Amino acid sequence: MDADLHPERGMFLHRLNPVAKLLVFSCFILAATLYLDVAVPLTFLVLAWLMGWLGARISPFALLRRLSPVLAAAVGLTVFNTLFYGGPREHLILTLGPLSIWREGLQIGGSIGLRILCVASYSVLYMWTTEPSRLVASLMQQARMPYRLAYAVLAAYRFLPILQRELGHIQAAQQVRSAHRRQRGSWLRRITHYGIPLLVSGIRQAERLAIAMDARGFGALPTRTHYVRTHMRPLDYIFTATGLAACALVLFALGELGLLRSFLAGVAESLAGAPQ
Amino acid sequence: MAQERLDLGLARWTTREIIVMAVISVALGLIFMAYGVLYLALVPLLGQVGIMLLLGFYYLTGILVPYIVRRPGAALVSSFLAAFTELLAGSPFGIAAVWAGLAQGAGAEVAFALRGWRDYRLPVLMGAAVLSGVFGYVYEYFLLSYAVLEPTVQLGLFLVRIPSAIVLAGWLGKVLGDGLARTGVLRGLAITRSAS
Question: What is the ipTM of this complex?
């Protein structure tokens, strides 16, 4: 039996092999992380939004709305890195009491804030266009993940709604016995009062499942058949090659424009000390 | 038909051990997502350095699961699974979380490996949590370019997470593991077989 979870439906990004897509997205994130200029993460951010828009009909606004909690974190990191910037500095912009803001610090702070947005954009884009079961199937079939582990993850993932319902039961049960009155104590008690019953019920389910799987001979053979098949199609090879080439091209072009400052240069500068 | 080439030493695990590890890791991954909301909300209050006091909780998987199943690879694989769950569940930090999970899990794994995967007493759990913090710091050093910060701030980002790792991962891992063992659901797993 062979079934591809209808990848022919959906847009270009949905149809890609999950492992190939993960590889390319990871390269984009890595590239954005290696440089300290605003231009680099900004370019890859725009690239993510363009890919989402053209390749999956995800409007940049929808993506931005999903990213709103990250936006606050990005602003926070920008402020933090600007205020506590320790590298070489020349241009003073502003002095607020003991704190001074330097143009170099602001640039690098902005770059790190945008970097976080970049990471988040690719992560959200990835999961919005990837079916979890296809991802796990392709990790097994293309990335050689041991199948016993992969099936365990899929099974555990199926437990999540059950565990959520179980948490409701635990809360209700403790309320009936007015356990909450005794709970005013430490945060530790609260964690153990909910965490242990929840994990216990999960582990009980796991035990039953393991017995059922063993009874059907799970893991008896080194190879196995798959219901969901994933393949590396010509499209996937083209996407991977194009993605990696685009990544190199972007970095080369930005370098030619003088907009690249590598992270390693930043390390060297900080080791050399910060001239005032 | 996929040939199983990567083994990770899983061949010797029982099905029950694998599934128990997966369930605990996936449940913790979901808890980490909820914790992340609280974590981000508290950053303005505690500051980027102060928030490191809460960071240690993320190292819990790599301590609790090895403490229960006591197998080589348990720390690395379970840390990865918890982070992978965050990716599957659509966390905006998904891809970065997977890398972080691998780094932190590798740290704990090194600590357990140094004791030959035989010693799971509290000081070892705490040491594994600290090494998780060290490896996690190295990863963040690159992801967030800590190199550009003032040296004292760089040091603060490293030091503040250490007590957090010891308490929220090392000690809490032991408390939760022992609590679970007392309920009897772990009967037959390594944690109940040894008297520690």
Answer: 0.86
Report residue B4's pLDDT band, with 50, 70 and 90 as the boundaries: very low
| Alpha helical stretches, state H, A10-59 | 12-15, 18-33, 39-56
Do A240 and A103 have their domain in common? yes
B3 touches chain A (CB under 8 A): yes
Domain spans in chain B, listed from the N-terminal domain onward: 13-185
Which residue is it, tokens 């403490």? B67
Nearest residue to A44 (alpha-carbon basis) of A129, A106, A102, A120: A120
What is the predicted pLDDT for the residue at A178?
67
CATH number of B13-185: 1.10.1760
Best A116, A127, A131, A162 member to test B by mutation, with max B CBs in 10 Å, is: A127
Using the Cβ of B138 and the Cβ atoms of chain A, whether some distance falls under 8 Å is answered with no
Q: State both tokens at A76.
A: 């926070």
Distance from CA of B60 to the nearest CA of A (A): 13
| Chain A residues inside the 8 Å CB shell of B187 | none
User: What total number of domains does chain A contain?
Assistant: 2
Q: Do B26 and A206 touch (CB under 8 A)?
A: no
Measured between alpha carbons, how far is residue B147 from residues A31, A70, A84, A273, B153 in Å?
17, 22, 11, 11, 10
